[in-house]
Design brief:
Blueprint lengths: L1 H17 L4 E5 L10 E3 L5 E3 L3 E3 L4 E5 L3 E6 L3 E3 L6 E6 L4 E6 L11 E3 L1
Antiparallel strand pairs: 1-6, 2-3, 4-5, 5-6, 7-10, 8-9
Protein name: Beta-microseminoprotein
Pfam family, one: PSP94
Family: Belongs to the beta-microseminoprotein family.
Length: 115
């Protein structure tokens, strides 16, 4: 009975941690008589209105009439041995692994993840 309770508590804590999403908003800049149907990123790349995309930094973005909404989609490892271990981001899968610095074949324990 106690094990089931602890397992449930662990699952709940994981969901609470994963719901802490980091987002930001970049408003569109309009000029007089501008009827643009797109959003422009700071690097000059444009996206059509109501489109979604994934950035190279593992964020999901959405273009609206008001601007660009982006949210981080990667759970970042926290509370691990940062001296013995390092986190490595796989930008293709948008996931982190935490491995030993001296032996990258060995994974490290991570007690919390932050999105």
């Amino acid at each position: 009975m106690m094990k089931a309770f602890l397992d449930s508590l662990t699952i709940f804590a994981t969901f609470v941690t994963l719901c802490n999403t980091q987002c930001y908003f970049k408003p569109n800049t309009y000029f007089p008589n501008d009827v643009s149907n797109e959003c422009k990123e700071s690097n000059g790349v444009t996206h059509s209105l109501n489109s979604r995309w994934r950035t190279d930094n593992c964020e999901t973005c959405f273009c609206s009439q008001e601007g660009i909404d982006c949210c981080n989609m990667v759970a970042k490892p926290v509370n691990y041995d940062t001296v013995k271990c390092e986190k490595i981001l796989n930008k293709e899968t948008c996931t982190y692994t935490v491995v030993e610095r001296e032996d990258p074949e060995k994974t490290c324990d991570v007690s919390d993840w932050l999105v």
